[in-house]
Structure formats: structure tokens, C-alpha cells
Design brief:
The complex is a heterodimer of chains A (314) and B (242). Chain A is mainly alpha-helical and 314 residues long. Chain A contains eleven helices and four strands, in the order H-H-E-H-E-E-H-H-H-H-H-H-H-H-E. Chain A has a single domain, classed as Formate dehydrogenase/DMSO reductase domain (Formate dehydrogenase/DMSO reductase fold, Up-down Bundle). In chain A, a hairpin with a 2-residue loop joins strand 2 and strand 3. In chain A, 50% of the residues are buried. Chain B is globular, with a radius of gyration of 19 Å. The chains are: A mainly alpha (314), B alpha+beta (242).
């Protein structure tokens, strides 16, 4: 019996697979949401991980904590407004046992509720918990900070898990995506911290440790991004190939390469110069930090919009 | 058509469908029947029939001398391990014991994570208020469709199945190209067709184990310039575009 020809061997899904379309649902607002939440939660984590106490104050509270809380709040607001049915948002808390969106929503609420309790006395003066729970040496405060820290860790990781679980969009379906989200959030948060402290004139005491942390973060994030690109290049599905092409050479290439340049390349150079140039050091670190924050947003936008799925129906 | 067990009582019933692509004539009767039965608004289709021969969607293929034309009916694949299920934060997407994957519309928040996860692109997001061609509802009152801000899709006509009737797309198919039955029953017609006709699932590499199978078009008499004489080992055929 003659061997089958190529056309005879063609399977149903061979005809289906070539139809690739860019995903149309998660674009600008989602990029802003991922970025703001990662940055806000990351800034809170950086502030406590580096024990930064002298960061400037707003309403009697640590400026960095307030910045972090406001950013997470903005991210949460974008998340809610982007839902098809925003009034049903509380239903998103129903299935934390299986959905990363539910886990993330729960973490957002926990973070924001504790943060609001923290902020209210600053606005309304004496409240029953004004002094007791939020004196940082207090045990209650320590517990709440620990809970907030855990919630912040979930907040910076869960968007990456959400993308990873979108199995039809092969560009996102890499175990390195959650790692990348964590690295991006922490590095850009270090950048924001450097910027805020430099602008407030409070960078000098912690300049070296924050600067080294920022440099390590930049290099680690760049390394993870590089490994992620290699990982996707080794997945030989049409959707992965098309998505990677769109990210590196196609419609999103300008955004991607600009994000690499301003989010990593320039900040690395500026940070290295800052270690040598004493007088201009804080200014250089502030610029580098601000650029990494901007680059992080642009990277997330590029990665989301480069997502391509196999689907004739869009 | 009881829901619980197969005739031999061994495994729970799992509804599945087989579509014979040799019989499908691309008439879209199933699409229209689905649309009417489920009272779908303008622009929304839970079932579509695609023309899949060309390099782009909805094109014929082949050559001028040997044009080719075949069709691929597409609707929810009611996967055994649906990618849409674990990503749903509210539990709006659920799977019944009989394998049908459905949506509680009243629980859907419109996050669209299920759309991003579905490898078949069959879920529809109602971005705008539903606009219907008639001022009165059509079809089954048991179906909710067109609710703004929510996601919807084919539910295998579960209201009809539960009542002992066939899904509307099968009932109306003039070519008798569709078959429904219990995939867990080795004696069912769908199991026999899968076994004997070499029916295939779409994108099996996604690991979702769809419950919809397609009997591929027999291409013994099809010729396409440049490909006719290329004999290959089955293992050398690549998935996706060459």
C-alpha cells in the first residue's frame, strides 16, 4: 500500500491551528492594573524589608506606605472598572481555592482594608485604634504588618499566575512569567523607593544598600526576561512562535525594546555611575529609578498585547 | 437519557459529540438553529461553521484546477479538563456530572479569564447591551443569553438533553453530520464512530480532552499542486502551519 501523501495525512486540527489572532481582551487597562498593583505592593515590601523608617511622612504616616497603598488602590479600581459587571466584584472572592484571580482579589482586599485602618487616624484624628495597633513596636501592629506583607507578596505574584493559566495564549504559558512579575514588581518598587527618597533628600543613609539592591534586581529581572524569551522560543507551537515574533519583531517590538532600554539598560548604567559620582549619585539613582518604573509599565503592556491565540473565532 | 449512569452502570455518563466533516456541507443551519433556540443577540454565535481550506479563515483552498472546500463546525468542546474552569474566580463556570460545561450567568463578573484560557475561542463576551432582531424572545426560556458584561457559550442544549431531546444543532442538521451520545459507553454510536472512523479532537496537545470529535475529511481524491506526490511518514507531519 502506498504511503499517504502529506495532504492525506493532514489532520483536522492542522487546518485549525494556523488561524492565529492577537488576544483583544486584556490590553492597556490590564497593563496599568498589573503595574500599579505590583509597584504598590512591592513598595510596601521594600520599605519593610529594608526597614526604611525615615522616608518622609504624609498625615503622620510613612510616605512610602501611603504611596504603596494608593497605587494598590488605583490598581484595584482599574481592575473593578474593567470587569464586565463591576457591581459583582465581591463574587470574585468566592473561589480562592482554585482561581488565582480570586486569591489576588482577596489579597487586594486584605491589603487595602489594613491600609485603610492604618490611614484613617491620620485623616480623622483620634480613633479607638489611633495609637495602640499601629505603633510599630506593638504586637498587633507587627501581626498586621506581617499579614499585609503576605498579602503584598500574593499581589505581586498573582497576575503572573493568571497569565500562566491562560493556556491558549502560549506566550504567557511559561513558569517564568510569575517569576518575571515578581522580579519586575520588586525592582521597579526599588526604583520608586530610590526616586521618592532622593526627591525627599532622605537617600543618603541608605543609598548604598538600596542602590546595590536595585542593581541586583535589574540584572536579575533582565536575566529572567532573557530566560523567558529563550523558554518561549523553545516551545514550537504556532501560537508561541507568533506571540514571540509579535513581541520581539512585530507590532509590540518597539514597546518591548524601549522597555528593555529605559527599564533596564539606562538604569543599570546610571546606577553604576551613581556609585562612582558622589555628588550626582542621588540624582542619578532617582532618574534610574523613575525610568525603571516607566519601563516596567511598558514591558507589561508589550507582553499583554503580544499575546496571540489559536482561534478562528477571536 | 438518564443523567446518572451508563447502561452497564460502570461509569457516569459523559456527553460527547462526533461531527463527520465528510458530511458537513457548510449550510450553517446548525448555527442559525442554535441562535434561534438560545435567543442569541445580533453578532453572537455559540456555534459557527468555518470554511477551513485556505491559508486564511473562510477561504477555499487548493488550486484553480483542483479547488478544495471543507467545513469545521465550532462550538464549545465541553472538555473533560476544561481550561476555563479553574480560572473562573466566582465558580460561574461549572461542569456537570455528565460532562457538560456551563455558566451560571448571574455569577459571572466578566473578568474574561475564561476567554483567555479557552484554546478554542468559543466563548463570547457581551460587551454591549444585547440587540435582537425581534422585539420578542425566541427559543427556550430556560436559556439566559445576551446579558451585558458577562461571558456565554454553547451549553450543549442541556435543557433539551435533560428533557430527553437532542441538541438543536443535531436535530436540524440536514446532512446528518452530527452525532451525540455517551463517550463512556463503548457501545454508543459516538464511541463506535470515534473507534472506527478515526475521529479526532481539536488541539489535543492542550491536554483538555475535548468531548467533541471530528471525523476528518477523506482526501484520497483530493489533489493540491505541489503536495500531491509528497509521501511522508505519519510521524514527520508537523502540527500547525508548515
Amino acid at each position: 500500500m502506498a504511503k499517504p501523501t502529506l495532504i492525506e495525512r493532514e489532520r483536522t486540527y492542522d487546518r485549525f491551528a494556523p488561524h492565529l489572532v492577537p488576544q483583544p481582551h486584556w490590553r492597556g487597562p490590564h497593563a496599568l492594573w498589573f503595574w500599579a498593583m505590583g509597584l504598590g505592593a512591592g513598595t510596601f515590601m521594600v520599605r519593610h524589608a529594608f526597614s526604611l523608617t525615615d522616608t518622609g511622612t504624609v498625615l503622620g504616616l510613612s510616605l512610602l506606605d501611603v504611596v504603596g497603598l494608593v497605587l494598590v488602590g488605583i490598581g484595584g479600581l482599574i481592575l473593578i472598572l474593567d470587569l464586565g459587571r463591576p457591581e459583582r466584584v465581591l463574587k470574585a472572592l468566592k473561589r480562592p481555592d482554585r482561581s488565582w484571580i480570586a486569591r489576588g482579589a482577596l489579597a487586594d482586599f486584605v491589603f487595602l482594608i489594613i491600609g485603610a485602618l492604618y490611614l484613617l487616624p491620620g485623616w480623622f484624628g483620634a480613633l479607638p485604634w489611633t495609637d495602640e495597633p499601629f505603633l510599630e513596636a506593638n504586637l498587633t501592629a507587627q501581626v498586621m504588618i506581617a499579614i499585609s506583607f503576605a498579602a503584598a507578596a500574593v499581589i505581586i505574584a498573582y497576575p503572573g499566575m493568571v497569565l500562566y493559566e491562560s493556556i491558549s495564549i502560549r506566550l504567557w504559558h511559561s513558569a517564568l512569567v510569575p517569576a518575571q512579575f515578581i522580579a519586575h514588581a520588586l525592582t521597579s518598587s526599588l526604583g520608586l523607593t530610590l526616586f521618592v527618597l532622593a526627591v525627599n533628600g532622605r537617600l543618603e543613609d541608605v543609598r548604598t544598600e538600596l542602590g546595590v539592591g536595585f542593581l541586583v534586581g535589574l540584572v536579575a529581572t533582565l536575566g529572567i526576561t532573557h530566560m523567558y524569551v529563550l523558554d518561549r522560543a523553545h516551545e514550537h507551537t504556532p501560537a508561541a512562535r507568533a506571540g514571540l515574533h509579535r513581541l520581539l519583531r512585530g507590532g509590540m517590538a518597539a514597546h518591548f525594546w524601549t522597555s528593555v532600554l529605559i527599564g533596564f539598560g539606562v538604569p543599570v548604567v546610571l546606577t553604576l555611575i551613581a556609585f562612582a559620582a558622589t555628588a550626582a549619585g542621588p540624582a542619578l539613582l532617582a532618574i534610574g529609578g523613575a525610568l525603571s518604573v516607566a519601563g516596567s509599565l511598558q514591558f507589561r503592556y508589550a507582553q499583554l498585547c503580544a499575546g496571540v491565540k489559536v482561534s478562528p473565532l477571536g | 437519557m438518564s443523567k446518572a449512569k451508563t447502561q452497564n452502570g460502570a461509569r457516569p455518563r459523559r456527553w460527547g459529540m462526533v461531527i463527520d466533516l465528510n458530511r458537513c456541507i457548510g449550510c450553517q443551519t446548525c448555527s442559525v438553529a442554535c441562535k434561534i433556540k438560545n435567543n442569541l443577540p445580533e453578532g453572537t454565535w455559540w456555534n459557527r461553521v468555518l470554511t477551513v481550506e485556505g491559508d486564511e479563515i473562510d477561504q477555499v483552498g487548493g488550486t484553480v484546477e483542483h479547488p478544495t472546500l471543507s467545513f469545521l463546525p465550532m462550538a464549545c468542546q465541553h472538555c473533560e479538563d476544561p481550561a476555563c474552569l479553574p480560572v473562573c474566580p466566582t465558580g460561574a463556570t461549572y461542569k456537570r456530572e455528565d460532562g457538560i460545561v456551563a455558566i451560571h450567568t448571574e455569577d459571572c463578573i466578566g473578568c474574561r479569564s475564561c476567554i483567555q484560557a479557552c484554546p478554542y475561542g468559543v466563548r463570547v463576551f457581551n460587551e454591549k447591551p444585547a440587540k435582537r432582531p425581534t422585539d420578542h424572545a425566541l427559543g427556550s426560556s430556560a436559556v439566559t443569553s445576551g446579558v451585558r458584561g458577562t461571558v456565554e457559550k454553547c451549553d450543549f442544549c442541556m435543557d433539551r438533553i435533560d428533557a430527553g431531546a437532542l441538541p438543536m444543532c443535531i436535530e436540524t442538521c440536514p446532512a446528518r453530520a452530527r452525532f451525540v451520545g455517551d463517550l463512556n459507553d463503548p457501545d454508543s454510536e459516538v464511541s463506535r464512530l470515534i473507534r472506527e472512523q478515526g475521529a479526532q479532537q481539536l488541539q489535543p496537545e492542550m491536554g483538555t480532552n475535548p468531548s467533541v470529535y471530528y471525523i476528518p475529511v477523506q482526501r484520497r481524491n483530493v489533489h493540491r499542486t505541489g503536495l500531491d506526490s509528497i509521501a511522508v511518514e505519519p510521524s514527520t507531519v508537523a502540527v500547525g502551519p508548515s
